[in-house]
Specification:
single chain; Cytochrome Bc1 Complex, Chain D, domain 2; mainly alpha; binds heme C; about 60% helix; about 0% strand; about 110 residues
């Protein structure tokens, strides 16, 4: 009986999570709320030559780069702009995935 209840909760959570992560709008909102636009531009076309464009970049590549940058595995003088940004370094894996999905699908 207890196991059934646990399975129900798990099923409900899975449903809620896939429901949430399926929304492209969430990715777009996060991209703005997490300050990515201030450097990488509203449409993923960056505001300065040293800031890479992100629009239509490969999704997996985007996820890996953000994780490497936050983990300080990738570093040059400009990476500091992200690693020293309190909001940027606070994003979690789910938010990175949503933002990457949004960026990949920019028209
Ligand atoms: C203050 C400016 C700034 C902000 C804010 C910022 N970035 Fe960056 N980002 C950079 C710079 C500069 C680089 C290039 C770093 C390097 O050359 O290693 C970069 C690199 C990247 C890359 C690697 C791109 C590539 O082509 O390899 C990704 C992906 C990325 N940023 C995503 C994000 C996301 C997502 C956010 C928001 C959560 C964000 N950035 C916020 C400045 C910023």
């Amino acid at each position: 009986m207890k196991k059934t209840a646990q399975l129900c909760v798990l099923a409900l959570l899975t449903f809620l999570m896939t429901g949430l992560s399926a929304s492209a709008q969430d990715g777009e909102r996060l991209y703005i709320y997490k300050f990515c636009t201030t450097c990488h531009g509203q449409n993923g076309i960056s505001i300065a030559p040293n800031y890479p464009n992100l629009a239509r970049q490969n999704q997996r590549y985007l996820v890996n780069q953000v994780k490497d940058i936050i983990a300080k595995k990738r570093a040059n003088n400009f990476t500091l702009l992200m690693t020293e940004h309190p909001v940027v370094i606070s994003i979690n894996d789910e938010e990175i995935a949503l933002i990457a999905a949004h960026l990949t699908n920019i028209k």
